[in-house]
Design a protein that fits this description.
The chain is of the alpha+beta class and 598 residues long. 20% of the residues lie in helices and 35% in strands. It has 4 domains: 104 residues, Immunoglobulins (Immunoglobulin-like); 97 residues, Immunoglobulins (Immunoglobulin-like); 202 residues, Antithrombin, subunit I, domain 2 (Antithrombin, Chain I, domain 2, 2-Layer Sandwich); 154 residues, Alpha-1-antitrypsin, domain 1 (Roll). Helix 2 runs antiparallel to helix 3. The two termini are 69 Å apart. 32% of the residues are buried. Bound molecules: 2-acetamido-2-deoxy-beta-D-glucopyranose (NAG) (4 copies).
């Protein structure tokens, strides 16, 4: 039997020999050379490939192509012209990695055999029919250019070789078998007579056994990395910057979808919920959340810093987190521990019925928002695996009180309409007020107890255009600069008139999640740090915020929830559809209909 080696296969025969890898391939095959064999992401690293000293690029003609920004080189089909030295040079910051491949193209191969990992492999070799067999043939495995190792069938002294067996000693048929093939068995094997005459060359490709889809979290159920430097001076400003950037990003998304209506949200609550989720997120989900909340990748101290921030704010803003989960779910113990450690949240089981669970969640929300938000969820679906909640409540009194006499005044709306509203009024209020050129707004700062302030930015006129002009300029940097600028100013006596307001706003969190680049949460989140048995998907996210300006001060609160369920594919026929009632037995249609108005 002679199998012609005309094939185009994906093969990766790599024999590691210190820094240079020798690869022997057959013409017509496809060769993929990775720049490095370890699994790391080199973001922004510059990779250069050369062939016999000439630089290769993605546009290079010929069969060698640089792929994925240089992460690997693909040669397809391999021809004799591809023989030579390939060099991959990776440069990142102060580091340089060089990888060399020496490629030999060998047309002398008799057999190409493809096997599945774990199976038994037959390597054929025959003495010529009429020759005399005085000694068994010798088998070698090629280890790169000019190097090979002897296979000694049945020789137990040589470690692994008990998997190798010569089937018919001293027979014309010198076929050997290799049992329980492993990936490393791939390569080129030579069979030679004792006199050194080549009898056969076999090229072995080992393919990964098709295994049932392994649990997605295998090997990933690790805790969040410890914060190595809790006293680092950079951790706190890093989180402050992230928060400002995240907050203004949210504001810009929200004002886009609500260009002229009332608007209110609590970035710190949304960020608190996402950070808590981040604690259990791994892989791409973790990266996506890190990007969404604007924290640098692998900022291990993010949870520690969130805890510090929560403690720092405690005199004015109370933040609470909670996780309710399906009793059938096995939450990872390290996640539970870290959840308590960083978010003071001990995951709690959902109750038997939807009504009980709904009530439990809504009372938690009411309790954590000082009864200002009494209702957030309507029901808890039986498929719900986990609900993550974050609630904040804020209470601050004016440092300078307003007049106690009830007053009313006219508020001019964007469309010019006037509404009569109750006012907060003071003839000589001590406040910081200035025109901030960068924002094109008149800004006033009202000091509150608990070391916080209310800033009010007043556009130049009551038009949408001038409102949007101010909002458009409110980047995180501009806002932080404004705060700094206002802090250096001294207060003056100002006649202040503010409307008494009571805002209650529920932005569409599902859209917001998508705008934050977290759409993948709806398709399947990698929450391997939290739960490893199956993928869960985000099925609903909500945010609700309220704020009241009263004679006493500012009362505000917000809740953020994210509810996850098992990743069943869903089908919802909650819109017009056509139906067929079919007899499977007779294979004929029985009824046909259409529903546009159920
Ligand atoms: C690659 O192989 C060629 C010829 O077989 C040899 O001359 C050269 O030194 C090898 N290069 C390396 C880096 O081993
Ligand atoms: C949770 O773990 C227990 C014990 O290890 C196991 O019997 C059970 O099947 C697991 N639950 C799920 C949903 O896989
Ligand atoms: C979690 O905390 C408990 C109690 O402090 C401890 O016994 C356990 O070892 C911890 N588990 C992990 C995985 O850290
Ligand atoms: C919240 O619950 C705690 C403990 O049950 C209780 O002490 C507190 O008064 C509650 N707060 C509100 C606003 O209901």
């Amino acid at each position: 039997m002679k199998l012609q080696a005309i094939l185009c296969l994906l093969l990766q025969l790599i024999f590691e020999l210190s820094s240079c890898t020798h690869v022997r391939v057959i013409p017509g095959s496809t060769l993929e050379l990775p720049c490095f064999s370890f699994q790391t992401e080199f973001n922004g690293a510059a990779i250069t490939w050369t062939f016999n000293g000439n630089v290769l690029s993605a546009q290079s003609t010929g069969s060698a192509r640089v792929k994925k920004d240089g992460l690997y080189l693909s040669i397809s089909p391999v021809t004799a012209a591809n023989e030579g030295e390939y060099l991959c040079l990776l440069k990142e910051n102060n580091m340089e990695v060089i990888r060399t491949y020496n490629i030999t193209v060998d047309a002398m191969i008799g057999y190409t055999i493809k096997v599945i990992e774990g199976s038994t492999l037959h390597l054929p070799c025959h003495f010529p029919p009429y020759s005399q067999v005085r000694a068994n043939a010798l088998w070698f495995k090629g280890m790169g250019v000019g190097k090979k190792t002897r296979l000694n069938p049945g020789d137990d002294s040589a470690g692994d070789n008990d998997r190798v067996e010569l089937l018919y000693p001293l027979d014309h048929d010198q076929t050997i078998i290799i049992r329980d093939t492993i990936m490393e068995d791939a390569g080129i094997y030579d069979c030679e007579s004792a006199e050194g005459e080549k009898l056969s060359t076999v090229y072995i490709i080992v393919e990964v056994a098709p295994t049932p889809v392994p649990p997605s979290c295998d090997g990933f159920i690790t805790a969040w990395e410890p914060c190595q430097d809790e006293n680092s001076r950079t951790g706190e400003p890093m989180l402050q910057e992230s928060m400002a950037e995240f907050s203004m990003k949210l504001f810009s998304y929200l004002r886009e979808s609500n260009p002229s209506s009332n608007l209110l949200f609590s970035p710190i609550s949304i960020s608190g919920a996402l950070s808590h989720l981040l604690l259990g997120a791994r892989g791409a989900t973790r990266r996506a959340i890190e990007t969404a909340v604007c924290v640098p990748h692998d900022f291990h101290c993010v949870h520690f810093q969130m805890k510090k921030l929560r403690e720092k704010l405690a005199s004015s803003l109370k933040m609470a987190s909670q996780i309710y989960y399906n009793p059938q779910m096995n939450l990872s113990e390290s996640f539970i521990n870290q959840s308590i450690q960083f978010y003071e949240a001990e995951p709690t089981r959902l109750l038997e019925t939807s009504a009980e669970s709904t009530q439990m969640i809504n009372s938690w929300v009411a309790n954590k928002t000082n009864n200002n938000i009494k209702h957030l969820v309507d029901s808890v679906s039986p498929s719900t695996q986990m609900i993550l909640l974050n609630a904040v409540s804020f209470s601050g009194q004016w440092k300078v009180k307003f007049d106690q006499k009830p007053k009313k005044g006219l508020f001019t709306k964007l469309d010019g309409d006037l509404v009569n509203v109750p006012l907060l009024y003071h003839q000589k209020y001590k406040a910081v007020m200035t025109y901030v050129i960068e924002l094109k707004a008149q800004v006033a700062r009202f000091a509150l107890t608990g070391d916080s302030s209310l800033y009010i930015l007043l556009p130049r006129s009551n038009t949408v255009a001038s409102l949007q002009q101010v909002e458009g300029k409110m980047t995180d940097i501009a806002v932080r600069q404004m705060i700094e600028q206002m802090k250096t100013r001294s207060s003056q006596h100002v006649e202040v008139t503010l409307p008494q307001i009571k805002l209650d706003f529920q932005p569409d969190m599902n859209i917001l999640i998508k705008k934050l680049g977290l759409s993948s949460l709806f398709e399947g989140a990698d929450l391997c740090g939290l739960y490893s048995e199956e993928k869960v998907v985000l099925d609903d996210a909500r945010h609700r915020a309220f704020l009241a300006l009263t004679e006493q001060g500012v009362e505000a609160g917000a809740v953020t929830t994210m509810s996850f369920s098992r990743s069943f594919p869903s089908f919802s026929a909650m819109r017009p559809f056509i139906m067929l009632l079919w007899s499977d037995q007779a294979n004929v249609p029985l009824f046909i209909g259409r529903v546009t108005d159920p």
